[in-house]
Amino acid sequence: MDPFEVRMQFLSLIRKLNASQQSIQKVVGFALKFYTQCGEDLWDCIVEECQKGSINNRINILYFLDSLCEASLMAKSRPGVLGRGSHPDSSFYVDYVTRDLGKIVESVVPEGRTGLPNLMSTKQILEDWRSKRVLDPQKVDDALAALDARHIAGDNSPPPSPLAHAPPKPEALPRDEVFQRIEADRERHKRLRERRWVQPVTHTPVQTAPLASFMPLTDDADGADELAIDIEFENEWETTSDWNEDDDEAVAEENDLCYPRHTGRGEAPMDFS
Q: CA-CA distances (angstroms) from residue 138 to 62, 101, 107, 199, 232?
């Protein structure tokens, strides 16, 4: 199949994309199959469709990119799975997503009321990528900061003048598309909740880590070589609050339950023998 036929068939697949895993995996398999032949061209097709597609199709493309990044990292951990012609250090489409993340997010969540239906789902995917180190956390933080800054700017904007002409209301989606979007969001959120329980895995062959360690086995400078046990520790460390008075009270209660104080008259000490 020549590059033109690959492009036309890929465009046909991505335009028929929906929220089902069967549809997403079909496009993911096609994109990985022809990566070595015309990966850059296929990525241009993704960006183009993400910019001009409908608001529902754009969020479908973002969830497709989520599965595509996961499949790309799995392919990276198995050298030679895509045949010859691929660089051994390449992360396949993950490199493209990292490079154009800002452009993708801007297209999926356009400014104004038009992008509101995709806002929360986009943030969930970005936070999932950051926690599992799918993309560079700094890149993801920048994209999230851009979305938050846009929201803050909208809240601080002055109220419109009553003499000014009211802007035209955005065209409402047909009733059938609204119900389709509800069903699609239900399917996507179910899939996202299932994946939250999956701990991040290393995508490069490394030696098996010990079962327990009090010191990090790797550090941030290791990049893709960072072990899953260290990623999980960092996630828990960042979400744990500092020690405060509530923790002192909880420890005291647990201590009283384990070693009760005998203040009443006639009470004998507990026999631990």
A: 19, 11, 20, 20, 18
Ranges of H-type helices in the chain = 3-15, 21-33, 35-52, 55-76, 93-99, 101-108, 116-131, 137-156, 175-196, 228-239, 245-258
Under 8 Å CB-to-CB from 121, ≥6 apart: which residues?
59, 62, 63, 185, 188, 189
Q: Give pLDDT tens digits for 172-215.
A: 667 777 777 888 878 777 776 776 665 554 544 444 444 444 44
Which residues fall within 8 angstroms of residue 118, CB to CB, at 6 or more apart? 55, 58, 59, 62, 108, 109
CA-wise closest residue to 23 among 59, 64, 51: 64
Nearest to 216 by CA among 201, 234, 202: 234
Residues 6+ apart with CB under 8 A from 96: 39, 40, 43
pTM: 0.66
